[in-house]
Amino acid sequence: MFKEFAKGLSITLKHLLPGNTTTVQYPKQKLEMAPRFRGLHRLVPTQHREKCVACYLCPTVCPAKCITVESAENEKGEKYPKVYEIDLLRCIFCGYCVEPVRLKLLK
Ligand code: SF4
Ligand code: SF4
């Protein structure tokens, strides 16, 4: 039993030495992201109005059904999303909602 204890303690002490850390020292160190990593998707805000025209394409393709869109019309008769919500607790981060949006509204 003492042998296992000494072995475990030696591993711990080894990792305490500078240069032997296994954790990433964020923010000084940053992990390299995989080329296909998308991060957190969101509706890209614009200066004057939402680019989204509430076409319901992204909630239609979402397999987890976690996007809620409610459309409305402004005074010019243009459609915009009165409600645009992504339930990130249900999202499976498949990225399907980003694909149909050719205008890069979702990132
Ligand atoms: S984000 Fe794009 S696909 Fe989704 S409702 Fe708006 S315009 Fe349609
Ligand atoms: S990443 Fe996938 S699951 Fe998440 S909101 Fe987009 S389509 Fe739905």
Ordered list of secondary-structure elements with their pairings:
Elements (H helix, E strand, L loop, with lengths): L1 H15 L40 H5 L5 E7 L5 E8 L21
Antiparallel strand pairs: 1-2
This protein binds iron/sulfur cluster (SF4) (2 copies).
One iron/sulfur cluster binds next to loops.
| Residues in helices, as a percent range | 10-25%
Class from helix and strand fractions: alpha+beta
- Cα Rg: 23 Å
Per the CATH scheme, the topology name of the domain at 30-86 is Alpha-Beta Plaits
Q: List cofactors, ions and other ligands.
A: iron/sulfur cluster
State the name of the first-level CATH class of the domain at 30-86.
Alpha Beta
Query: Mean pLDDT across all residues, rounded?
Result: 84
Q: Tell me, what's the shape?
A: elongated
Largest sheet: 2 strands, antiparallel
Strand order within the widest beta sheet: 1-2
Q: What is the subunit organization of this protein?
A: single chain
Residue stretches low in confidence (pLDDT < 50, at least 5 long) are none
Give the helices and strands as they follow along the chain: HHEE
What is the second-level CATH architecture of the domain at 30-86?
A: 2-Layer Sandwich
Rounded to the nearest angstrom, the distance between the terminal CA atoms is 54 Å
How much of the sequence lies in strands comes to 5-15%
The number of helices is 2
DSSP strand tally: 2
